[in-house]
Amino acid sequence: MSYAIVIDQPGDSSVLNYREVADPVAGPGEVLIRTTAIGINYIDIYHREGKYPVDYPFTPGAEAVGTIVALGDGVTGLAVGDRIATTEAKRAYAELVVVPAEGALPVPAELSDDVAVALPLQGMTAHYLVNSSFPLEAGQTCIVHAAAGGVGLLLTQMAKAKGARVIATVSTPEKEILAREAGADVVLGYDDFSAQARELTDGLGVHVVYDGVGKTTFDSSLAALRVRGVLVSFGSASGAVAPLDVSRLAQGGSLTVTRPTLWSFLQTPEERAWRWGEVSAAAASGKLHVRVGAVFPLSDTAGAHDALTGRHTTGKVVLIP
Fold first, then answer.
1. How far apart, in Å, are the Cα atoms of 41 and each of 8, 147, 280?
2. Which of 133, 228, 245, 280 makes the best surface tag, with the fewest CB within 10 Å?
3. What is the value of pTM for the model shown?
4. Of the candidates 302, 300, 301, 270, which has an alpha carbon nearest to the alpha carbon of residue 102?
5. SS in 3 state form for the chain?
6. 275 Cβ partners below 8 Å, 6+ apart?
């Protein structure tokens, strides 16, 4: 037996029960890891709340770092004792977790567990945003919303590394400091950011908005775009975006809106290796700074969820079994 977080019905953080469960078993093509760090992401909260239907009882989580303790049939290229990270785990809020072998990512020795667990989902998300959803080029201007969050801090650094101008949005003076440390050229609050962005671009607007906030920023994000600009709506921390009348895109100047997810950008082993290799190597070398904003014991997952939904955190929120 081992411990895990189990949800019996959707609800607020009080439904996150820490209790003993039967040890999972690695099936064909899978490995079993003993977790050393677990990542919290907004999709876990959507699962907890019932916004995304799941079967109960349910253990949330897909992101973890740990050591392989067993191999399923047919697994090659991995060994017991290997230290891996993943954003493709099953029921990751647990001491023992099953991971598809293809989703096991080798962790550089230079990375601590809490830093490594910040990279599979948030790091590779930032990577596909600036390299694939809208490939940023030197001299272009972007808006990064929630720039002091886990994705935002990494995204800001990656955008600056490409030579882009970054206009960041944040909600507090403390978060402004973090955004500037990450390299943001300009930091704005959310009030009237579209008008300010136009002023900063001589009335033209920005090339792209990377928007992980959703409902409360979507309209103003559209308004901040230049002709043929792109809105990359990759999250909904403030709630789901309302249905879009596509005629607005023509009226705004032949705009484009895309709603990507990470899984669409991990379609082949080669693509996964490219994204993880660049992100983990940059973090290991110190070129990419990873901020771990809060660490909670697995037994206090409810407290971690409350801190995240209350926007009391910056950077990555991590659980330690």
1. 20, 16, 19
2. 245
3. 0.92
4. 270
5. CEEEEEECCCCCHHHCEEEEECCCCCCCCEEEEEEEEEECCHHHHHHHHCCCCCCCCECCCCEEEEEEEEECCCCCCCCCCCEEEECCCECCCECEEEEEHHHCEECCCCCCHHHHCCCCCHHHHHHHHHHHHCCCCCCCEEEECCCCEHHHHHHHHHHHHCCCEEEEECCCHHHHHHHHHCCCCEEECCCCHHHHHHHHCCCCCEEEEEECCCCCCHHHHHHCEEEEEEEEECCCCCCCCCCCCCHHHHHCCCCEEECCCHHHHCCCHHHHHHHHHHHHHHHHHCCCCCCEEEEEEHHHHHHHHHHHHCCCCCEEEEEEC
6. 124, 127, 128, 265, 266
Q: What does each of the 321 residues of the chain score in pLDDT, given as a tens digit?
A: 999 999 999 999 999 999 999 999 999 999 999 999 999 998 899 899 998 889 999 999 999 999 999 999 999 999 999 999 999 998 999 999 999 999 999 999 999 999 999 999 999 999 999 999 999 999 999 999 999 988 999 999 999 999 999 999 999 999 999 999 999 999 999 999 999 999 999 999 999 999 999 999 999 999 999 999 999 999 888 888 999 999 999 999 999 999 999 999 999 999 999 999 999 999 999 999 999 989 999 999 999 999 988 877 888 999 999
CA distance 281 to 269: 17
Q: Rounded to whole angstroms, what are the CA distances from 166 to 92, 145, 279?
A: 34, 10, 20
- C-beta atoms surrounding 11 within 10 Å: 12
